[in-house]
Amino acid sequence: MKSLPLRAAVCALVSAFALSPAVADETCNSPFMSGLIKGQEQYLHVWTLGEKGVGDGSDKLVTIDVIPGSTTYGKVIHTIAVGGRGEAHHMGFTDDRKYLWAGRLDDSKIFIFDVGSDPSTPKLVKTIDNLAESTGYVGPHTFYALPGRMLVQALSNKKDHGGVTGLITYNNAGELVTTTPMPLNDGGDGYGYDIAINPAQNRMLTSSFTGWTNYMMDLSQLIQDDSAMKNFGNTMVMWDLKAMKPQKVFSVPGAPLEIRWALKPGANWAITAGALTSKLYLIKEDDKNEWQAKAVADVGDPAKIPLPVDISIASDASSLWVNTFMDGTARLFDLSNPEAPKQVYSKKIGAQVNMVSQSWDGKRVYFTTSLLANWDKKGAENEQFLKGYSWDGKELKEDFVVDFHKEGLGRAHHMKFTARAQKAELP
Questions:
Q1: How sure is the predictor about 4, in pLDDT bands with cuts at 50, 70 and 90?
Q2: Count of structural domains within the chain
Q3: 403 exposed, middle or buried (CB, 10 Å; 0-12, 13-18, 19+)?
Q4: For the chain, which end, N or C, has fewer CB atoms within 10 Å of the first or last residue's CB respectively?
């Protein structure tokens, strides 16, 4: 793909999307992606942390067959080890959906896999191993497609391994284009975590977590360290997408993590969860057309710190899955009134649960377990699995389980869907 200058390409696609809702197979994906899956996903890729004494101990990309009726349905059909253990974490597709970028939070390596040639057998085609030296940032977390570009949100920095960090833009060939620091003025704390874009509004939202020193610390040690517990992000930032300039910093206490824009036409709002406050926060324009962020619901009992982690919004913005790591529970919230979400369902998935991905039609929901290697539970509670469920609107029905320990794979983390012969389509 021939890359356009970044500003021109973004402007063009913002205009193209201005009158249409963003669509994608997983509702967390960039709206700039082509080759969208609205039907049945066929393969589920799991970015997996290597674990000492489990299989080869290496981080790897694991591919699961999720084609109903297949003789290998719910089974591992391919793995590709990348060597070492560097805290494998999140992934993201390029805008043409042919390549999957995956990052490691410890050694800051980025791996680019070809998933377009044959999604059943991804191939590693490039490794970027100079992020810290070339940008000054470490801990590549979110990978978010722009036209001909990959926008990467880092979590930390090379200088002091604290939470002050920035955004990094590469072209699709993996060549560095530019860096953008997270704001430190007008209430900004410089922290980062997730990225979510609303092209029709020319808006980008970012959230905040913590730096390398904290996320690489054992969780039991961390929560007893009063000084370390002060080093978590408490902000979100609204950006002008075309100019890539921060416009407003919101106070959102307690490490707001994943961000999801409502994809329903006319629903001009986004939602996130605060990990440490156990609250859902709504980001929405008020009656004066000013963007505001406010707490709108509790997740479980905040006094018990259930630790909300990943969230997944329905494609029609009617509901939101929220995983809480400490009690291993998935909760479903009714978002018919986003100003007052209501929990309508819950199910314990396991001793711990982290990531959740649902199909575009909401009928299939997948869960994985690992949060961070040093934050996962110990002993028998260190369950590591992928579970696939059917959702009929009333109950989650378990379809299959892949035990990542029994399979010798490690710690199951981030998931992405692929399928063969997908045709590009605009909304």
A1: very low
A2: 1
A3: middle
A4: N
Q: What is the distance, to the nearest Å, from the Cα of residue 386 to the centroid of all Cα atoms in its chain?
A: 16
How many angstroms separate the CA atoms of 248 and 331, rounded?
31
pLDDT of residue 202: 95
Distance, in Å, from the CA atom of 192 to the CA atom of 106, rounded to the nearest integer, reads 16
Domain with residue 270: its CATH number is 2.130.10.10
Give the length of the chain: 427
Could you give the CA distance from residue 165 to residue 168 in angstroms, rounded to a whole number?
10
Of the candidate ranges 17-26, 144-153, 166-175, 219-228, the one whose mean pLDDT is the lowest: 17-26
Residue 38: pLDDT band with limits 50, 70, 90: confident
- Beta strand 203-206 pairing with 235-240: antiparallel
Q: Which residues pair with 321 in a beta bridge?
A: 312, 332
**Which residues pair with residue 370 across a beta bridge?**
none
pLDDT tens, residue by residue, 344-363: 999 999 999 999 999 999 99
pLDDT in tens, 66-119: 999 999 999 999 999 999 999 999 999 999 999 999 999 999 999 999 999 999
| CA–CA distance, 229 with 210 (Å, rounded to integer) | 9
> With contact defined as beta carbons under 8 Å apart, do 306 and 328 qualify?
no
**Amino acid (one-letter) located at 203:** R
Question: Residue 321: which of 260, 387, 252 has the closest Cα?
Answer: 260
Residue 197 included in any domain: yes
Residue 206 main-chain phi, psi, to 5 deg: -125, 155
Per-residue confidence band for 39, with pLDDT thresholds at 50, 70 and 90: confident
C-alpha–C-alpha distance, residues 386 and 415, integer Å: 9
- Report the SS3 class of residue 380: helix
Residue 240, domain member (yes or no) = yes
Q: For residues 316 and 338, is the Cβ–Cβ distance under 8 A?
A: no
> Does residue 117 belong to any structural domain of this protein?
yes
Domain range for 67 is 6-418
Q: Left (φ > 0), alpha (ψ -120 to 50) or beta: where does 372 sit?
A: beta
pLDDT at 359: 94
